[in-house]
């Protein structure tokens, strides 16, 4: 009898929990009022800095980009997130990572682009880790807001 591998089934509760956590952390990071095209520099230490930019705003959703600012890393290693913030559902979901758009909930494994079975969850979990890093560094460095002056 040949045993077939079980099909991966996404855990929606786990995914929703990480997206809700990302939403709560992002709200702590953003100012109360902000406009489309507003951007801020986020400094974690002298070699780790990011830019948070509002790409699009609508009544119930915002789209943000988070880009690592660096000159010492090759371009393919620079972190880039595109995040959709759903205010009505109180969730923030990564919709693009490293120039890859339209992340699927699950991928067949193995696949040509070497995506994980649960790539979307992994990337959203990475955003959660990044947000936790920002707040940890914020507390370590200056006890001030991690959100620095708006970028021009």
Please, could you describe this protein's structure?
The protein is an alpha+beta fold and 152 residues long. It has one domain (12-29, 37-150). The protein has 2 helices and 7 strands; from the N terminus they run H-E-E-E-E-E-E-H-E. The protein has a 7-stranded antiparallel sheet with strand order 6-5-4-3-2-1-7. Strand 2 (48-57) and strand 3 form a beta hairpin. Helix 1 (12-29) packs parallel to helix 2.
| Rg for CA atoms | 17 Å
Instruction: Sketch the topology as an H/E string, one letter per element.
Output: HEEEEEEHE
**Overall mean pLDDT score?**
83
Secondary-structure-derived class: alpha+beta
Strands of the widest sheet, in order across it, are 6-5-4-3-2-1-7
Sum up the overall morphology in one term. globular
Question: What is the total tally of β strands?
Answer: 7
Number of helices: 2
Q: How many structurally independent domains? A: 1
* Strand residue content: 25-35%
Oligomer: single chain
Percent helix, as a range, is 25-40%
Largest sheet: 7 strands, antiparallel
């Amino acid at each position: 009898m040949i045993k077939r591998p079980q099909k991966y089934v996404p855990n929606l509760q786990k995914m929703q929990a990480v997206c809700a956590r990302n939403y709560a952390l992002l709200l702590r990071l953003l100012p109360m009022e902000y406009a489309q095209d507003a951007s801020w520099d986020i400094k974690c230490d002298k070699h780790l800095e990011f830019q948070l930019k509002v790409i699009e705003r609508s009544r119930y959703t915002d789209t943000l980009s988070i880009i690592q600012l660096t000159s010492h890393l090759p371009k393919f290693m620079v972190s880039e997130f595109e995040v959709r913030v759903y205010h009505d559902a109180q969730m923030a979901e990564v919709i693009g990572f490293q120039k890859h758009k339209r992340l699927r909930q699950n991928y067949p494994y193995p696949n040509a682009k070497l995506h994980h079975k649960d790539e979307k969850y992994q990337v959203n979990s990475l955003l959660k880790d990044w947000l936790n890093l920002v707040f940890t560094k914020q507390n370590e460095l200056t006890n001030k807001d991690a959100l620095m002056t708006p970028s021009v």
